[in-house]
Amino acid sequence: MYIAMKKYPAAVLRERLSEALDAAYQGVPVLIERKGVQYRLTREGSPKKRTSARKPLVDVVDPAVLTGEWTWEWTPDGLTFAGRAAAKKRK
Fold this sequence. Notes:
Radius of gyration: 29 Å
Strand order of the largest sheet: 1-2-3
């Protein structure tokens, strides 16, 4: 498979820098020419891939919390977390 090289004069590259960076990221060689001198834009190494899935920041241990069957209640001691009865199913 042949990958066409991208070639930009420096003046045009200023307008299309993101396009040139995208091409280099995809492995397409990018050649930049300024005052007769050629520069090559390439990607350094390969992008890092995650080896494992992110761990959740919050663990849900109470099934009532997981299903949304909870509420806050005012008590003499202040605001407390309380489960509430599951809603009856409609027939």
